[in-house]
Design a protein that fits this description.
Elements lengths: L1 E12 L2 E12 L3 E5 L6 H9 L6 E6 L2 E5 L4 E2 L8 E3 L11 H11 L4 H14 L15 H13 L6 E4 L7 H18 L3 E5 L2 H7 L2 E6 L2 E6 L1 H6 L4 H6 L3 E12 L2 E6 L2 E7 L8 E7 L4 E3 L6 E11 L4 E7 L2 E7 L6 E6 L6 E2 L1
Parallel strand pairs: 3-9, 3-10, 7-8, 8-9, 14-21
Antiparallel strand pairs: 1-2, 1-4, 4-5, 5-6, 10-11, 12-13, 12-15, 13-14, 15-21, 16-20, 17-18, 17-20, 18-19
Helix pairs in contact: 2-3, 2-4
Length: about 350
């Protein structure tokens, strides 16, 4: 069942178009991440759904309720949309206790005091904070403050939860822990949520589906696996993951197979272009798919090892040849000097 639908949404800031015909759907129990670079429109889309920004065209429908219709010139005010929102800053009241912060939406809805107490305690228990209701925000860690913000958004059982970069204020280690907690909570409670993030690892870990925005439009959407392993455009391929790019002359392009001439060597990959042979093209490959070897062979370039870097669980190796630099991973460092770097054809996308 579709919980929320956005249809051909346009939004301008003055004369500057920010959303240029965005359409998406959120199914019940699904988590969708809005991913993209700064200025791509992801936060604007979330705020338009929340009613905090006014679109110029399109429709937003939640269940059977039309929240916005540009043609009919109707819009439901933000406070009447009954959406749960977790802001990037958490926006907790410093003078209120944890219990008072979480109970505030219930108080606005004139829920009775006994029911407020029951529902707040239930949320605190679900968040693993059952004994912290009497504390103030400045007595909590960053991760605990984040849970309070989530609890406040969940306490009145909204049909859709909107998350605006909910983990960005946490340090790296705590962020990983919070990511796991948030995904587990979403699954356990069966939440429907839209999350804005610029962190692709976060999007892939938490989401069922990712919408990659580029300059106000959806560049590609799909499951995390589809977005990472089957990019449809060069932008998608370069945005997702950590990548190497090799440029050369396109000498063959047929049957889903493309061949580049790089330093006089034939490098074969999966064709993602309709270009005719003879022009320039680029191959994109994830860093972890690059292979390092000591012998020549198909799809291999001779390159010099410039910088081995120890990362703890593995080594990152930097190779160079003329104006081309690539990176790969290895379990152990390689000796200085020349090596052969292999670009597996099934892992190289040619655009």
């Amino acid at each position: 069942m579709i919980e929320l639908s956005v249809q051909d949404l346009y939004l301008n800031y003055g004369t500057n178009p920010v959303l240029k015909g965005v359409s998406m759907q959120l199914a019940r129990g699904e988590v969708v991440s809005l991913l993209g670079a700064s200025g791509s429109g992801k936060t604007t889309l979330l705020r338009a759904i929340a009613g905090l920004e006014q679109a110029s065209k399109g429709r937003i429908v939640m269940g059977e309720h039309v929240l916005f219709d540009g043609a009919a010139k109707t819009e439901t005010p933000a406070e009447q949309r009954n959406l749960g929102i977790v802001f990037q800053s958490y926006a907790l009241w410093p003078h209120k206790t944890v219990t008072e912060n979480i109970a505030y939406p219930l108080k606005l809805r004139k829920v009775s005091a006994p029911e407020q107490h029951s529902r707040v305690q239930e949320i605190l228990d679900q968040l693993g904070m059952g004994k912290l209701g009497g504390r103030y925000p400045n007595e909590l860690s960053g991760g605990q403050q984040q849970r309070v913000a989530i609890g406040r958004a969940l306490v009145y059982n909204p049909p859709v939860l909107l998350l605006d970069e909910p983990l960005s204020n946490l340090d790296a280690k705590l962020r990983e822990e919070a990511r796991a907690f948030l995904r587990e909570l979403i699954i356990r409670l069966g939440l429907s949520a839209i999350m804005v993030t610029h962190d692709q690892a976060e999007a892939m870990a938490i989401s069922d589906r990712i919408l990659l925005l580029n300059n106000g439009r959806i560049e590609q959407q799909g499951t995390p696996q589809e977005m990472y392993a089957a990019p449809q455009t060069r932008f998608s391929a370069e945005f997702m993951g950590s990548n190497n790019k090799i440029e050369g002359t396109l000498i063959e392009n047929a049957g889903g197979r493309a061949v580049l001439d790089v330093f006089g060597t034939r490098i074969t990959g999966q064709s993602r272009t309709a270009a005719a042979p003879g022009g320039k093209a680029a191959g994109i490959i994830r860093i972890e798919r690059l292979r390092c070897t000591t012998a020549d062979g198909p799809n291999r370039l001779k390159m010099e090892l410039k910088a081995p870097m120890y990362l703890g669980e593995r080594w990152e190796l930097v190779f160079a040849r003329e104006n081309l630099t690539v990176r790969g991973y290895a379990d152990a460092p390689l000796p200085p000097g020349d090596h052969y770097v292999e670009f597996p054809p099934e892992a190289l996308w040619v655009f």
